[in-house]
Amino acid sequence: MTAAAPLFSDPRRQRFTEFVANRREPDAIIRLRREAFDRFETLGWPTRQQEAWRLTDLSALQSITFQQPADALVDVETLPTLDGPTHRLVFVNGRFAPGLSRLPELPDGALITSLGQAVTTHPERIEPYLDRLPGLEQHPFAALNTAFWEDGAFVHLPRGTVIKEPVHLVFYAAGGDANVHPRLLLMLEDGAHATVVVEYRGQGRYLNAPLAELALGSGAALHYHQLQEESPQAFHLGAVQVRQGRDSEANLHLVSVGGQLARVDLAVLLDGEGTRCALNGLTLAREQQYGDYHVRVEHARPHGTSEQRFKSVLDGKARSVFDGMIHVRPGAQKTDARQTSRNLLLSKQAQAHSNPRLEILADDVKCGHGSSTGFLDPDAEFYLRARGIPATQARALLVHAFANDHLNQIRLTPLRERLARLLAARLALDLVEGESTP
Amino acid sequence: MLEIRNLHVTVEDREILKGIDLTIHPGETHAIMGPNGSGKSTLANVIAGREGYTVTEGEIRFDGKNLLDMDPETRACEGLFLAFQYPVEIPGVANLYFLKAAVNAIRKYRGEPPVDAMDFWDLVHERMELVKMDESMLKRSVNEGFSGGEKKRNEVFQMAVLQPRFAVLDETDSGLDIDALKVVADGVNALRSPERGFLVITHYQRLLDYIVPGQVHVLVNGKIARSGGKELALELEEQGYALYNEEPGRARRAAA
Ligand SMILES: Nc1ncnc2c1ncn2[C@@H]1O[C@H](COP(=O)(O)OP(=O)(O)O)[C@@H](O)[C@H]1O
Ligand SMILES: [Mg+2]
Q1: Which of A342, A376, A383 has the highest number of chain B CBs within 10 A, making it the mutation to test binding with B?
Q2: What ipTM, to 2 d.p.?
């Protein structure tokens, strides 16, 4: 019925038809998938003529024929773990791996499980909420995710439920040019608290196009961490949607180190009075890597606070993009919205693009943005060397200091420490043992 | 231990040092005084190995070794220390971590194992008291948000921990009140020994009441215009650098 009626021979449509035919799901979910697929066809594959995709070069991706993912075995050793008790769900090629997962008891009414299973066991909890968050209607890969997701995580905490142990969601892709679309649907009802760690890993070449929907009720609190450590050949085109109710608090930490091309589109709607949102993003890229955050923070109600702090460290010919929008709706008085983008270039060929954007339609607000891009401070380097510290170590220390500021915002100790080790390893920096903050 | 011979230095093709000769033996403390822009910091930076300075003629030897061939970290590991006129702020690098990294880099250079954690802690505490530094400064990032006085104190503190054999202090007294100045002087005097040498650069005579030098040199327009005993500093205080055709009375006014 859409103008761009698909050709019958379109392999993607054919793949979709076969895919939905094999799903045993409530009609409502199948309907969502069809709508999403139609939406994707209307939007089409992104081109660089579109403002939102101007800097994202997808040509390497287009020459590859991606496959529906197959079952795969994974070496348990390659899967990341978090010290301490967790609610752990592992997905291999987008499919739930119960044998690798571990789900402790939950308080009454709470649910942490495979989304694919929950769709049939608890349809009433899913149908009204899946694919309901605004902000990414124009994102073709979000539409593809809704059309094609096989499985993912469903986290639902009823009113007032507080879960101390982190929810650890591991998504592993096993290569073979698979195109995986893992999904996360998280709902924190009023006053619920959760800490979530999402990790993307893999081997070989694949396209990972995950979508996370995070809905927070009044007074809910979420600490969400997303660590993208895809394989060096991988493509990552992810999206995160957040809607926050009154007086809720969302802290998002995004770290991107893997993949040849990685882009995350993040849309946050502060949809209640007095909501607080902190978005921290860190990209470490080298060689030919490309890392991109497209962020839209929308203040819909008064007294909301948001802070976006994005950093990148770029070596070799790496490139990073930060495109960050603060949109304040007319009624959202007393908004306090800030945004900074800071980029550290370790090589002359590296490039960072920052594109801060403000659309402020209320008159009594505080909004600010700043961006900076530069090389290491030669005076600081000399100062360290003049105390005996070798040049390579001095530079590593300075890079570490730049990035560590991001990691220090993470309250989940085992994750923060693992990331600190990852950062140190990337910088070949010997952390002096016992010294917590270099 | 430090021998500077006929040192000519240009910065961006402009000659700043125009033939400096200076020899400092172990156990000696020399002072360099001079008006602003005369090249004092240039000399200090060339000794420490900062980039951007071209030595067109002459040499600097440290214990007989060619200093100009060494990179800055090697100079530091050989026992050289520069207290910066403008200490650099390094956000995100904690003072204590930085010091430990420096101590261990120097120990590694000497073929020694990393410092024992307890020994290091003891040394740090002892030296902190010497310069009356607050313990909270150890956890803070290097010089970040420090007041002018705290920065200078931190330089002396680092010197006291690293225990160099030869230290250049570049206007470590500038901007300090008399109490802070005494603390800096105490820090230097505590390190003075027959094996150590000091080059104290200052704009004012005042510091030299507390760190009494064996010799005073007057640097004017890239040359040592005069050398003498400690009384030369007092003379300069009286007469300014006017005798040297430079901005008459400036030193006195600035000191007042
Ligand atoms: N890095 C530099 N770049 C450009 N000019 C410099 C630099 N360092 C010193 N100079 C110039 O050299 C001269 C001497 O400066 P300096 O050694 O700092 O003098 P002092 O420490 O005696 O005040 C001044 O004219 C100064 O402008
Ligand atoms: Mg100077």
Answers
A1: A383
A2: 0.94
